[in-house]
Amino acid sequence: MKKISLFFIGLLSLGGVATAQPSKATLVIETDQPQAKIHKEIYGQFAEHLGAGIYGGIWVGKNSKIPNIDGYRRDVVEAIKQLAVPVIRWPGGCFADQYHWMDGVGPQDKRKHLINSNWGGVVEDNSFGTNEFLNFCELVGAEPYISGNLGSGTPQEMADWVEYMTFDGSSPMADLRRANGRDKPWKVKFWGVGNESWGCGGNMTPEYYSDLYRRYATFLHNYSGNQLYKIASGANGNDYNWTDVVMKAVGHRMQGISLHYYTVPKTWADKGSATSFDTQEYLTSIEKTLYMNELITKHSAIMDKYDPQKKIGLIVDEWGIWTNVEPGTNPGFLFQQNSLRDAIIAALNFNIFDQHADRVRMANIAQMVNVLQSIILTKGDKMVLTPTYYAFEMYKGHMGGELLNTQLTCDQINLGQEKSPMLSVSASSKDGVITLSIVNIDPTNDADLTCDLRGGTFKSVLGEILTSKNLTDINTFDVPSTVQLKPFTSAKLKGSNVTLKVPAKSIITLTIQ
Question: Is 318 a catalytic residue?
């Protein structure tokens, strides 16, 4: 075995394979050596006007027979509040750069009906607009992250939107807000200046986009104590030139720059099934997920050239697994099921984001309800929590904590093109409590893990585990609890050591105090 630095997860090609018997692994946690703060926004969500992501997923209207709170699904509201979701991105996605916010304010029965040409060609009635989204964020306790229309909008339109939301004085936009039923402004911190401007947001060059960003951002003002955190449209995967050009041209006129990367199990033409895959396809999915570490490392290095003090955040505001849609569903709705594999993929991404907490300021899984790697699925009056939902629940303890220095020694597993440690971990400290999350990516082999807690005295350990018989196991509307959280009681604390067996294909979170 060989000591592995977690900063290089997914990049390794060292020898060693998992054995048939439980392998031995050790983890050293320097509990008195806190690193960067893990921003709670790393565990953010994303809701786009796409399929049933909004309509039927979040919003059913006040007159719906589905139990609701002022039109918002009660079951979804309660599920999101349970996760303490910190931030929600809206209205897109590709939808954002064709969205004109004035179409979605005022009396709902008088709002424009349009065609959602990006997603399925369905009618968008604009009944869920600015007021509905911001009120929803207040209801669930999340901060809003607005993705502004740079692609087909104007600087004036975007500036007016900021004024409508955040200005407390008397002005045309603030008065319009009041006429629409909201007296006091909202607090809206996070603001995206365009989305995927290299693609659906305008097919721009980074040079052209940088000039547009500088123009648009100039007119986005801070009103009434509201401070905008402006986020530039960043790179698609490994387009490092985009990051370099935008960092050089825009610099500290932005507070963040985005990154989009999806785990696609096979190819973009045939992404693979969400529910039917073999072991090798699972391992390939893990390999592609771990590539996120290389992307963040290399984009961060470019950012360091222009921002050595790390004032600009890297915002991974679209990530997750993207498979083929479920058979018989509209291909433009991007509805896919969610298996144990997806929960493991989510947990691996969390560990990578945590390890890069000095640069990663926010991340938003795509997407929250009924679209891509959802945490929630709905159908009529039914709702089901996916395995990915439980992964988020397991990582709540890391939000706002301080990353702890760790050294992991464990066996390797062959993923296909690369090899990787069979275990991935994240450890953090908050208010004297250590949260340790462990992922065993090996589909068949357990690991006996000894954790050496250095620099502190601890008296108790509690745990929970997410696993299932098969990697393909899912939760359905008829059988909603095949994959669910269970107590994990076999971790033993003796002195400064915690010992446990980490089952194959599992996620474990320990709370040590």
Answer: yes
168 and 293 together in one domain = yes
Q: pLDDT value at position 445?
A: 97
Centroid of chain to Cα 304: 23
Rounded alpha-carbon distances, angstroms, from residue 353 to 124, 293, 421, 493: 35, 8, 17, 28
Query: Taking a C-beta distance cutoff of 8 angstroms, is the pair 354, 398 a contact?
Result: yes
What integer pLDDT is reported at residue 455 of this predicted model?
92
Structure tokens at 248: 């050089």
Q: Nearest to residue 118, comparing CAs of 427, 410, 332, 379?
A: 332
Q: Are residues 252 and 133 in the same domain?
A: yes
Same domain, 362 and 450: no
Q: What is the CATH number for 443?
A: 2.60.40.1180
Task: Check residue 277 and report its DSSP letter.
Answer: -
Helix (H, G, I), strand (E, B) or coil at 77: helix
Find the catalytic residue in 132, 196, 287, 418.
196
The answer to whether residues 414 and 369 belong to one domain is no
Domain count, the chain: 2
Active-site annotation holder among 143, 318, 393, 418: 318
Q: Could you say which residues of the chain have pLDDT below 70?
A: 1-20
CATH code of 273's domain: 3.20.20.80
Residue 78 φ/ψ region, left for φ over 0, alpha for ψ in the -120 to 50 degree band, beta for the rest = alpha
Of the candidates 95, 87, 111, the one whose C-alpha atom is nearest the C-alpha of residue 149 is: 95
- pTM: predicted TM-score of the whole model, two decimal places: 0.94
Q: In this structure, which amino acid lies at residue 230?
A: K
Whether 287 sits among the annotated catalytic residues: the reply is no
